[in-house]
Design goal:
Helices cover about 40% and strands about 0% of the residues. It is an all-alpha fold. Helix 4 packs across helix 5. The longest helix has 16 residues.
């Protein structure tokens, strides 16, 4: 897209035409260092034994192993490796057994026309109580 040896347009002009900055053009992505590979290998080994370790506990584990790693770095490693701590999540699909089940009144009705069936929903009944 950007030609460095263009006769008439400089790199600055070409970047402006494309709507990007020169730093984007000159950016060279850095690879993963040996230190990061060691840390990710230890995270992988520890995660295999303790999949319930979150970012904070894994950061403390790595610090105990002698690595100077914070929780945000561990979070980035987890994202790179596609890991997520295993823990029980909220189960929102269980209903209250004491709650009354209301019948569906339109169950046997064939609705074939627009405006054939109307419904209303009462979200909030204002009783005049204001703060």
């Amino acid at each position: 897209m950007i030609e460095p040896n263009h006769n008439k347009l400089t790199i600055i002009q070409q970047c402006k035409l494309l709507g990007s900055s020169r730093s984007t053009y000159y950016y060279q992505p850095t690879g993963i260092s040996e230190q990061e590979l060691k840390i990710m290998a230890i995270i992988d080994e520890s995660y295999t034994m303790h999949p319930y370790y979150g970012m904070r506990r894994m950061a403390k584990y790595l610090q105990a192993q002698g690595f100077s790693v914070g929780r945000k770095a561990v979070r980035r490693y987890y994202q790179i490796m596609g890991l997520e701590a295993v823990y029980s999540k909220m189960n929102l699909s269980k209903r209250n057994q004491a709650h009354k089940i209301y019948p569906y009144l339109l169950k046997g009705l064939d609705i074939v026309l627009p405006n054939h069936v109307w419904s209303a929903d009462i979200l909030l009944v204002n009783e005049g109580l204001q703060r």
